[in-house]
What we know:
about 290 residues; alpha+beta; 2 domains; two-stranded antiparallel ribbon
Amino acid sequence: MRHGGKPACRSNFEPRLVVRASRAAAQRNVGRTFPSLIHRRLRLTLGYRGTRYAGWATQSPSRTRGRPTVQATLEAALASAVGHPVRVTAAGRTDAGVHADAQVVSFETSSRIASDGLRRVVQRRLPEDVWIVDAADAAADFDARRSALRRWYRYAICRDSSPPAVWQGRCLVDARPLSLDAMRTAARSLLGRHDFASFVTRPTVTRSTERSVLAADWLEVSPALLLFEICADAYLKKMVRGIVGSLLWVGDGHWTPEEFATALARADRRAAGPNAPAAGLSLVRIEY
């Protein structure tokens, strides 16, 4: 029979031809490999105000008591931008309430969005208290944490009862008379490689508490503003806050600089002063 002037049976042979062609193509491809999804490694530098966050690292809601973490907030924004889950690695794991001006993170993505375009897209998905300073493609072996050589922290103390707007929420308000000279003398004992167990919160017995401090000093920016800056290869949990709290004991006369040095040498948390509040601490620079 004919339909529309053409043999009706012709279409019955077309599927067989397709199957034969598919089998032939499959046989030709035996033993060949095909490229998988192309992965890029990117590096982001970001800042954040840590006031409302339960720290950098993602944690269970039962531990954060409903507060967000910076890592989870950033990863959600990145996943929305690139269309797949993202896991980031950070140079420093800041504690609850601690800020950052130049945190560095690395991650992999199969997205082809240019780094600067990705920065703009992700920024639109972040809250106002988290922002991206820079975005760039990185070498395949770059790791924000393992590749870091030195990390700088800064602790700010406002000696006025009303901090300037730029320091609101980012400093410790402390109007007590403090001896800057005594605190600077004590800070010099931090330089070099030491066991910093006296300043760590909840040390673990399986990990070393030795760290190398390359710089540590107090700066009087103005009569109303003191800054403590410290640079080390790595830090222990709440180490900088423990150091600052103990240095403030020197500043107000509770300790001498020599007593601070003795507390450091004892490598025992019970020998040192209290942790300074988180509000004054910021991660300010990572060196590679």
